[in-house]
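Appendix B, record 7
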Amino acid sequence: MLLLVLGKGKTGSLVAQIARERGHSVRVLDYRENHGASALTAPTLANIDVVLDFTTPDAAVENIRACLALGARVVVGTTGWYAQLGEMKALAFRRDGALLYGTNYSIGVQKLFKLTAELAKLQGYTFDIAEIHHTTKLDSPSGTAITLREIIQTAQPDAKVEITSKREGDATGLHTVTARSENDLVELRHDSFSRRGFAEGAVLAAEWLHDKNGVWEFREVVDKILGDKL
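Structure tokens (predicted):
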């Protein structure tokens, strides 16, 4: 496949590297080359199989809109833009494009989501979430922490789930889910040692999306993408 990666930051660069390792051709654009989505024209996207966005929330909205308007297929690793998700879904369907988005593409975090759904079935417990990311991460709390809260509140709609967010150094991502009762405490923890797991998941998502049209959240289709790996 021919992939277009938007963003030359640490994660975007790693996505491009892993895509090449898996035998794909890759083009990369940073914000200077694609200011205001100006480079995302019909000629640029003509032979692109999938676009992968790893930019900033504001840039991601412009990029997604430009790509979907041309019927492109887009995997979005950027978070913090979901206020515009409804608009982007409608555009994808209207233009017969494809949009796959997710708060975290790490296989380990996907397992954390599944285990949290099981933990959230406990009655008589209070729940809280703690997360630590690098100081340059723009959204706080993280999209992953928000997803964990949504999973808990799906099982227990009245639960008040506090999220504690910290930004420290170059931390790649630590998420902890705690269930506490008068008698005991149960804790789930995922600590990311590098961005590679996230990048690998995003490339797998692009490989899955390349011949499809529609809209999906990564955790809704991760079983199909990963098969027995999860």
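Remarks on this record: The chain has a mean pLDDT of 93. The CA atoms of residues 222 and 228 lie 10 Å apart.
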